[in-house]
Amino acid sequence: MEQNFGKVAVLMGGSSSERQISLNSGNAVLSALRSAGVDAHAFDPAEQSVWQLREQGFARAFIALHGRFGEDGTLQGALQALGIPYTGSGVMASALSMDKWRAKLVWLAAGVPTPKYRLLTPGIDFTAVMEALGLPLIIKPAREGSSIGVSKVETPAEFGAAYEQAARCDALVIAEEFVAGQEMTAGVLGDQTLPLVRIEMSPGNAYDYENKYFTDKAHYHCPAGVSSELEEAVQRDALRAFQVLGCRGWGRADVIVRADGSYSFLEMNTAPGMTDHSLVPMAARAAGMSFAQLCLRILEQAALD
Question: Which annotated residues bind Mg(2+) 1 (predicted)?
Answer without folding.
Answer: 254, 267
